[in-house]
Amino acid sequence: MASSPNPTDQNFIVVDFHYNGQFSPNPLVYFDPDRASVRDVDFSGFGYEQFMEFLHKLTKSRSKDIYFCLPQESLGLGIHTLVNNGDYKEFLDLAYANDKRMNVYVDHHNEPIFDWIEAEESESENEDLDEDEDSVIQDSYSVDHEEDDATYPFPANKTARDRFLNILCEPIESEDQDDEYVPPQYPVYDERQPWDQMKPIIGMRFCNPTELKHMLSNYAVANGYDLWFEKNDSDRLLVKCCKKNKSPSCPFRLWASWMGKEKTFQIKSLVNEHNCCRVFKFGSIVTYRWIGKHFMSQIIENPKMSARKMKAKVSTTFNINVSVGQCRNAKKFALQEIEGSLIEHYGRLWSYGEEIIRSNPGSTVRLDVDIMPDSTTLFSKFYVCFKAVRDGWLEGCRPVIGLDGCFLKGIVRGEVISAVGKDANNHIYPLAWAVVCVENKETWKWFIDLLMDDINGGLGAGITLLSDGHKGLLQAVKERCPEAEHRQCARHILANFNKRFTGQQYIKLFWRAVRASTVEKFRGVMENIKSIDTHAYDYLIDRDPTTWSKAFFQEGRDCDAVENGVSESFNSAIRHARRRPIITMLEEIRLFVMERIYTQRVEGMEWDLLICPTIRKRIEDLKVKQRLWGVTPCGYQKYEVRFTDVAYGVDLIAKKCACRIWQLTGIPCLHGVAAISYLNHDAEAYVSQSYTTEAYLKCYQYSINPLNSSEMWPDVPYHKPLPPKEEDYLVTTRKSVHLTNKAIHKYQVLPGAVEQTRVYPGAMKDHHLLHHHLQPNNLLHHHLQPNNLLHHHLQPNNLLHHHLPPCQEEGSQLVEVEGGNIMNGLSNKH
């Protein structure tokens, strides 16, 4: 509680609160506030927290930037911060020592007030003004803080003829007329301000009349004012209230025009006072453009929103009535604005890829585009794998990768497909990601092919892949990585299983079958399922148990995961980014991974542990549970571990247990911990090297280098891709689609080509799909390895002009290289 004199009820201090205004520098003033004068509250009995709670209730604002100043002092000289109990004691002491009155100001915009004061003081020191001139300046500005409305420079019902726009704008009279006069700075319109808090302020400046009209629309809707434009052209704007009333009694009036010597549109005159009733239907002040701008984000999330549904949302959100036609035009306007933004985003993908290669040499970036029959270039696929991430995975992660896809949530539909690993602490490690139009066998095979090239995975030997049951993904893994261990997510299998076989008994037995670590246990559980329903048994057997039961998992992978949790976690982490335009989304994913690598490295460097914390906690839990098991030695480092009638053999030298959990995970199982504890050894010493802090730091030892802002990205001489057409990839998602006259994608392999080429029936012979692959310091067309001269290849400092080759009868042909220019001809006889 702040200490202060003990006043009686007759000598309470008077506090004048100023809020909902805005600070402006040079000189420091507080524009157009709402005021409240409190005289009957004993503030000496408050502490700082109680005072702030009182202030928040009074102003209906949770702002923490509070200042106080004596009424007789200017803000520039007498302003103080109010942030703690010490400041509050000074607040009370100053008030009681100065006529028991104090001004309090609420800063709603977090302005750098003391930086402004310091700059103002430095300017005044540079001016060669004597003491008399200083006193004139201070006296003239001090009137901004008088509490008498008759002398305050910005009363709400005065026009530009008041003292602010005349007296303060006139040259200050002084003995030295050669001194340069610095006019006061007017408030500038801030479009980032919440729409329902915008209001006109006399002298406020705008870039153009459109900004002012948009602000007035927000102001009118938020308060229910029936504003209308009496004069509205490119040079001036006159706004009044209550047009329908033949004898308007509402005194509101705003006049704005261009400033004489600068390209700024300014409010010159303002009578900001209303005595009219609230309206719910507006005229020209609420246009379809205004509705479209406010509903832009909702239309991005739901582009199929109907005009009637939008009308209902406008009514509930803004408490106004609009027509269906306005909403229809608003949606059309919003989609056009979004399309323009999307076209710009997709058109800059080439430059974005080049910037990644420039800043992170050795990374892999690949952009595929479609060349349509009308020569239009459409986006197809975009792949990213940063060198720092790839090297960290190779040196510190286990050979376990989760593959999954998730839908984009914006206007342009598509999917983000990703490869996610596990670090030594069993947390996610994003390895590579791509944006594709549709998730199918071809896109997954394309993605896995690039991934295997990046990690030198060959045909998948020694690698474990986790995925859901997507048919195209299963086929792509089988064809591209026949030597890899492929596991299906048990949750996805259970979800499909439950559609036909419901009941808790099925669920319990299914998970017992999944977690059975030996073939014998698995067979026993499956026999129980068979005894209940042979169809359920057959269904699970048809789903290939070797891909979803631990009994068949390969040993030595240090992972017994039966669910693709790493991919689900990554998809959840980027759920907000998936609503963004493509480059914004890719940047948010990059920033997420870049920051995660740094924070995980810093966290790991603080550990003073042999193994990672998550694994250590698991060992500690097993040490408690092992006390129920009896241990009988039966040979050198070999033991029988028994609990009632259940027994397992443990070999500490080979780090094996008959239950196979130790071999699958690389972490001693319950029986292994019991045998280790029997010898009074530390179980952490028996954990695989994959879980050590050393392996963890290896995983995060490299950093993703920062990228420059978009205006600094390199220019490239290629045709800018457009967003994909929705019908192009919706048709290809279902193979059973009824054939129509529309062109349907067919896939053919051209002789001599490295990649598949997308050919359109009825298209010209020289239109095809070009694959563009970015490598360090090179811009490559088609799938290229370093130093290959196959297809289009750009050496450093060379400019490649993107031309379509002349028609060929059939096949593909590599054109001779002359002077560093490489052109490739691809065609197909239709």
TrEMBL record:
One example GO MF annotation: zinc ion binding
Keyword Cell division: no
Residue ranges of every copy of the SWIM-type domain listed in the record: 648-680
InterPro entries listed in its UniProt record: MULE_transposase_dom (IPR018289), Transposase_MuDR (IPR004332), Znf_PMZ (IPR006564), Znf_SWIM (IPR007527)
Alphabetized UniProt keyword annotations: Metal-binding, Zinc, Zinc-finger
Taxonomy, superkingdom: Eukaryota
Keyword ATP-binding attached: no
Any single Pfam family the record assigns to this protein: SWIM
Stated name of the protein: SWIM-type domain-containing protein
The organism of origin for this protein: Lactuca saligna
Highest classification ranks of the organism: Eukaryota, Viridiplantae, Streptophyta, Embryophyta, Tracheophyta
